[in-house]
Amino acid sequence: MDTQIRTEITQHNLIPAAHTGAYDIRHNSVDKRRPPAERIRNYLDSVGDPYHFIVGETVVHIRFNGEKSLTACLADTLNRMAG
C-alpha cells in the first residue's frame, strides 16, 4: 500500500469494512411479532458491539451525547424499521 494512502487511512481512521471485524447489519432481520425488548436483545446478540458495525462497505461508529440511552435509541430505530 502506498505510504500516502496509509497515512490518510490512519489520520482519518478509515479501515476497509471487510477488515474491521464488525457485523454487517444487512444480514439482520426484525421479527415484528416480538416485543421491543426482545427485538433489542436479539439485535444486540447478533451485532455484538452496537457502537461499531458495518452496512455493506460503510463502517459505522456511533457516539451518544447522553440525552437518550442506547436502548431508547435502538428501540426507536427498531420500531421505525418494523413499521
Explained architecture:
The chain has 83 residues and is mainly alpha-helical. It has a domain at 1-19 and 52-83. It contains three helices and two strands, in the order H-H-E-E-H. The radius of gyration is 16 Å and the shape is globular.
Can you summarize this structure?
The protein is mainly alpha-helical. It is built from 3 helices and 2 strands. A hairpin with a 2-residue loop joins strand 1 and strand 2.
Biggest β-sheet description: 2 strands, antiparallel
Percent in helix? 40-55%
Shape estimate: globular
Poorly predicted runs of 5 or more residues: none
Beta strands, count: 2
Radius of gyration: 16 Å
**Widest β-sheet, arrangement of strands:** 1-2
- Residue share in β-strands: 5-15%
Quaternary state of the chains? single chain
N- and C-termini, Cα separation: 45 Å
Order of helices and strands: HHEEH
